[in-house]
Structure formats: structure tokens, C-alpha cells
Amino acid sequence: xxRCKAEEEMKGLEMSENPLIRLLDxxxxxxxxxxxxxxLNHVSLDIMENEFVAIMGPSGSGKSTMMNQxxxxxxxxxxxxxIDGRNVAKMTPLExxxxxxxxxxxxxxxxxxxxxxxxxxxxxxxxxxxxxHRDTSGKAAAVLKSVGFDExxxxxxxxQLSGGQQQRVAIAxxxxxxxxxxxxxxxxxxxxxxxxxxxxxxxVDLHQKGKTVILxxxxxxxxxxxxxxxxxxxxxxxxS
Amino acid sequence: MRDIFFDLSVRSVRLNxxxxxxxxxxxxxxxVAISSMGMLGANMQLSVKQxxxxxxxxVMISSDxxxxxxxxxxxxxxxxxxxxxxxxxxxxxxxxxxxxxxRTNTQFTIGSTNGRGSIYGFExxxxxxxxxxxxxxxxxxxxxAVVGSNIATNFNLVVGSRIKIGPPxxxxxxxxxxxxxxxxxxxxxxxxxxxxxxxxxDTWYTNQYGNKDVYDQVNVIVKNVDTIGDVETxxxxxxxxxxxxxxxxxxxxxxxxITQTLGTITTFxxxxxxxxxxxxxxxxxxxxxxxxxxxVHEIGILLSIGTEKGEVRRMFLYEAFILGLIGSVxxxxxxxxxxxxVVSAMIGNTAYFFMPDSIMYVPYGMVIGIxxxxxxxxxxxxxxxxxxxxxxxxxx
Lengths: 240, 396
Known about the structure:
By secondary structure, chain A is α/β, with parallel strands linked by helices.
């Protein structure tokens, strides 16, 4: 698919003029010993500000690769990825790092809290990265409270917290720099059903407050929370 | 409030306490080796220098006899060092001790026995500036004299004995009274061979031999032997301005040679100490690489949520610095104890141990220990900061 064709396809999708995220004919090819593997195959799509999008697909369909692209942990092999109006491929590594820090909040399936820091410090950490000093404004504590985290537990290390508590801390960490985009990779995958529902309610609440929420899930019931579902298969968007 | 990356490093060191401790022990050994060896070498040098300094800290100045030789080949009598040259020497020598000396050879008679020896004319108070009497006192009266050990022994002289100065059979020979006796000195590199000499006040000497304001030799006793070259240069520039009128000599080359040899030995033993620090550096490198390997997943998290590469590097360099700091502080303290024991056992004299030239090896060793640690942490820190966050997150 050439670029003109992709652009025509984009027009056909009747997307708005200023999407928060735009993938334009994006492909990601991994060069393996066994040969090239195309994880994303000429994907074009727009995600608007304040959308709640679920990305679904079978294993190997390219969901994780898509999340890595959207989280600017990786860059496309071909095509263009625009986030918040900027072409990711044309940004320096430091600019990408700053965009990850300021524009994107990442919530992982396995929480991925920093084990050596307390719950509070994990939430404070992105603020320190951004402002280069410890948080004296009380923002970290406020965000932690806003996700329903018990304040008394804030000095506990991640290994002293339950899965639900860890995910609340992870969401608070993702939110603390007030990013436009919340990327959630199977956010309820490691939680029981009840805690999973609580976490999804949190994400719905964040969406209602104006955040753009993108989540990857296998679970159709979780995907029902989203207003739009992007179906991937074999590295292609098959439904959007 | 502390840097969070420093906090992370401290916590990592605490978390892997035993491993960190073992790595730091390597640094402790390295710092102790370098500091102790350095202090041993420095104490050897200081001790030897002190022993030799009493002999070689004297600049000998005499008239340039070669220049006073006439072109016709007939040797003319040296005029000696004049009063004005002496004043120039004093000005150039600064606070160092300047001793003008008259000297000649003479015959003398003690009782009925004749003898021959040197006779020196000194300002009496100058004698004690470089000689120590074994018996008696410096000349207090105009006719008092101090005698060397050989003369005293050979002629059975005691304080109060009388010596007639001048050739036998000479009428009205002046007589001096022995006021003090010098111990044996042997060959002296300052040109004052006391054992066969009689020391008289300079007024007595010039009354007998004339040449009141002309001196056969001027000795400058330098307080700090390390500055002897500077003093000589200053005197040379002051007195030998237009033409060379005085000769300046010293015995410092012997000291220089010995201290150079000791310096080489010190460098050699420091290098041996340095080997242990190299071993410690390998140990720190290994620990840091293990730390990076164990924390790949954590590094992935840090990078994925917006930590800059420089911040990740800083975190690991802090860790290396902390290991180095712990090792160096403990090593520095141990160096004081072990170094003192080594110096005491090998030199038998710890008088110089706390002198700056010796004790400086402790901070010197500590700084080297820390620097070696940080250098050892450079590659692991670089490796950590350049990880692909996706691969790092997958490594769980």
C-alpha cells in the first residue's frame, strides 16, 4: 500500500482534522534470523482526543507492537506516527523520552512499579523527572488519594501491596504529570474480577475527565468499557 | 531533599549489602595498600633526608682562586671573600645562617710538645650553630679557644690547658686557653675539619694574622635542605653578577641521589599497592555489571516512563561512588592504623608519620579509591542507560 492510497483510506475513514494520535501507513518489521517478521502491516488510523479506545486481537496480532509504538518505546520501520501533532520519527531520543514523561501515562499489566521506591515515591517519581526536584506541592499525595489508594499504605514498598493496590499506584504514577494519553496494557490482566472492575471504573472516570484512554485487552467485557474497538489481526487493522 | 537517583543507589547498595560489602573490601585493601606503602616510602625519605641533612645542608663559599690567577702563570694569592661580598651573601641567604670563617695552618706548642694543625677564626657564637661541644664552653674571653678531639686526645688537653700558637723558637708567641673540647667529627662535607683544629675568636685571629674584613670561607647553613639550590642561585646572582668572584659548592648531590633512589623505591611499592586497587576495580566492575544485569527489568521500567539516559547513568555511577566512598573511608581509617604499624616496624621511627608529606597518602589513596570505583562503574552505567526499554521490560 503506497502512501497516497493510505491517505485516501484515511479520508475515507472520515476522521477529524486534528487527531491526537495518527498512524499513517505504519509498518514494523523485525529482522530475525529466521527471516523478517512484520508485526504491524501498513496500519493507518486516527485516535482523537478524549477517545476511549480498546485494541483487541489474538496473540501475535500486533497489539503489543502497537502499544510500543503508541508509547514511543519504539519507532515505525516505515510510515509515520504523529502524537500530539509531532512526527515521532523526527524527534530526538531525548524529545521522545520527554514525550513519554509528559504526554503519555503508561499502565502495565504487571504494574511495573519501581521496587526500591515506596508507593508514594513511585507516584512522585515522574514529577521529579519532569521538575528535577522532590514534590513539595502535595500533588503526588493528591493523585494517589484520587485513585482511592489508602494513604496509610503510601510508605509501603510495592511488594507489600496487593495487586489492586499496586495497579492504583501505577495509575496514579501514570496520571501525576497530567498526560493527555493513558495507555493501558491489559490493566486488569493480573487482577481478580472485582478489583478489575474497580480499576476499569477508574479508567472510565479518567476518560470522563478528558483523558484519552487506550487499552489493550483480550477480554471482550473489558473492551465494552471503550467507545471504540480496534481489531487487529496479523498486524493489520481489521475493524475499527 | 536528596536526589532520588542517589536514594535509589543507596537502597540498591543496602539491598545487596553483602555483595556491596565484599566489593568495598577490595577497595579497602587497595586504599590501605596504596596509603600504607606511600606513607612507608615517605617516612623512609623523610627519615633519611633528616639524617643526611645535618651533613649536606651547608653551602660552602670561597673566593674563586682560578680567576685570581694571573695570565702570566704566576699564581696570585686569593683575596678571599670580602666584607661587601659577605653582606651580599647575607642578603641573598635571607633567614638562613651565614658563618664567615678565617682559616690557616699553624704550628703550636703545648707544654714542651710541638704540633701542627688548622686554626679557625670564628665569631664565638657561630660555633654552636653547627658544632656541639663535648666538654667546656664556647670562647668567652679574648684568648679562649676550642680544640678538636684529636688535639685534645694527643696532647691530653683539658679545659684550662694553655696552647702557644706559632712556630717554635718564636719569641712572644700568643697563648690561648682551652675553654671547650669538641667531639670527634671525622670528615665533614662542610669543609670544617675540626678534629685537628683550634677555634679562636675572630678578633684574636685577625689581630694575629690580619685580613680583618677578608674571609677564607663563608658557610651558609640552609634551614630547609630542599631549598639549597634556590639559595645557591640567589647567592650566585647576587655576588657573581658581572664576573665569577666566588665559588659555591655543597654536598647535596649525595642527598639528591639517595632521595631519588628512595623515590623510585616508593613509586615501585606504590605500584605494587596499585595492583591491589586494579584487582579491586575488577571486583567493582563485576559487582556493577551484576547490579545492571539484576536490574534490567527495573531499568526498563525507568526508561519506559520517561527517565533520561543520563539519569540512569547517574544512578549507577552514584552506586559505584557509594561503594568507593565506603571502601575509601574505611580504607583511610585502616591505613592510619596499619601504616603506623608498618612504619614503626620497618623504620623504627614514627616521628615523621603525621607530617604532611607522609599523611597526605591517606586522602591521596582515598581519592584514588573513589576514582577507580567510579571509572569501574562507567561501562556498566553506560550499558544500563543504553538498553532498549522494550527488551529490558521483556527480561522479567
